[in-house]
Amino acid sequence: ASTRGLLYPRESESREVRTLDGIWRFLLSDVNDPMKGVRDCWFKTDLDKVRPTRPMPVPSSYNDISVDTKLRDHIGTVWYETKFFVPHSWNMDQRIWLRFGSVHYAAIVWINGEKVMAHSIGHLPFESEITNYVNFGAENRLTLICDNTLVNSTIPQGTIVEEESDNGKVMIQRYTFDFFNYAGIHRTVHLYTTPAVYIEDIKVSTDLIENHIGLVHYEVIVNGNERKAVVYDPPIEPLYIHVQMRNKEGEIVAHSVSKTTLNGTIVIKDVMPWWPYLMNPEPGYLYTMELYLHAVDESLLDVYRLKVGIRTLKWNNSTFLLNDAPIYLRGFGKHEDSDIRGKGFDYALLTRDFNLIKWIGANAYRTSHYPYSEESMQFADEFGIMVIDECAGVNTDIFEPLLLQNHKFSIEQLIHRDRNHASVIMWSIANEPRSGNSQADKYFKILSNYTKSLDPTRPITAALNIEAKKDKLGQYLDIISFNRYNAWYQNAGQLDMITKHVVEEATLWHVMHNKTVIMTEYGADTYEGLHFLPAYIWSEDYQLSLLSKHFKAFDNLRSQKWFIGEFVWNFADFKTAQTYTRVGGNKKGVFTRQRQPKSAAHLLRQRYFGLAIEL
Ligand code: GCB
User: Fold this and answer.
1) I want to staple 147 with a disulfide (CB 3.0 to 4.6 A). Which of 106, 492, 565, 606 is the partner?
2) Where in this chain does the record put each Glycoside hydrolase family 2 immunoglobulin-like beta-sandwich domain (predicted)?
């Protein structure tokens, strides 16, 4: 397991960053022999020489780019290839890194025919130093194979079945979650440099004294003295870090004092704490932490800048406090999903989403059901949006040891990636696991304890959907989240069977565990433009009524301090696998897939702003 923090690539005095985003060459492997290309070493030559390739944008899911069912529904491996130059100026004194924001689900990467890294579990970054593999002052070839198959031990799980079709036997990928299993190079590909001796990892945690003095504890990991390309002889030691904090205006407001260590605490007087949106006139206040790595002779080795929000989190049986103020979460379950690009990262979409979140007055969302882009985490920090950060464990079933190992690994990577974000207020270790199964108790005990051991500064939750009395996971969580589709999956059409059920279920969860409770999902599929009075299932009118009946329940529950949040499902419509329950995908969005409001968005806006004013 990796312990690396995978700092987001940032340029500085000592680092250069480029992206390799653009059009790459692409081809599909044969479904019945997905590893043929690896056996035949397709990575040793230009892909075009193996088979005809087609252009493929990076980042993007590949599924919806063409008009070809074979590509949309492909199972197994695909190949990507691009070429890039490494300039002479990036000489051997530096290290060169190749980093993928995410590839779904598994990938192997070659540079100039040599394997440089492999990774599995989508939605998470991975990188490798490639200094020894590149040609300086010359062109280089990058080849990648990506596999989208989900099986019993992957996060999330799936099964591959073989069926008879008109064209003989075909493989079908089955999965129990509803979002489409988009695949490909989903996020930015960075090529960047660090000095030979460099800042590898930073861990930050913050504290406040009477909301007036800010404390920033930091631990820095330095690497490079003894690794790979450049070996210093004798090694540069000891090293120290000089840290300074700049406020939004760019003024230096505090700095570290020690000249001997890589760890320490910075004290900021008259601090501006990080506050959520609408809780303070200046939400999302971030300091820039500048880290200067020096050799003992004071020569400057490396510089990295990290945005830091200073806040505290505290929780007990009846409240959840941020900067000692009780928090009530009003938000969404979301998806990374849009037309054509699927789950491919897009700054335009991200910016639009955050503008809509602000417009509607939400202060939170859950990264249902997998880690979202690092760029989105940076936005959440800046906008003051609180994030329930969920790993990719969805509908976990058949609790085998290899699955537990992968689930632990997915949480470990998520926490390493996101632990420095002020916006992350909670880890969600699973969505709708089969938590009543006999093996679930032991499995989730191990997983919960492991998550807490990695980050004791944040509470953990999971979105549960089985009956409270049958569940075995709630006992290990700090905060109980539950999903329930009253008047939809149960009692469809019965708008008068919502309020009481929601109040009773939330109360039961609280009484059973004596913990705070969030409703993380409720909602109704809604075909935009469809109207019926009286309200009828799938119409905009039905979604409006269904939401308002839930609001009644939430208002009732809110008089109990332990009910701490409501998350409508979903922010926007999204694509699903093909089933007869979905018309053009999951339509429970308050916004359409194109990010325009349905009627319910206006109602939700009144409520969310209303709740903000009440606070
Ligand atoms: C759920 C799942 C979510 C689905 C939703 C639905 O319980 O957690 O992923 O999209 O229901 O609309 O069916």
Assistant:
1) 106
2) 197-311
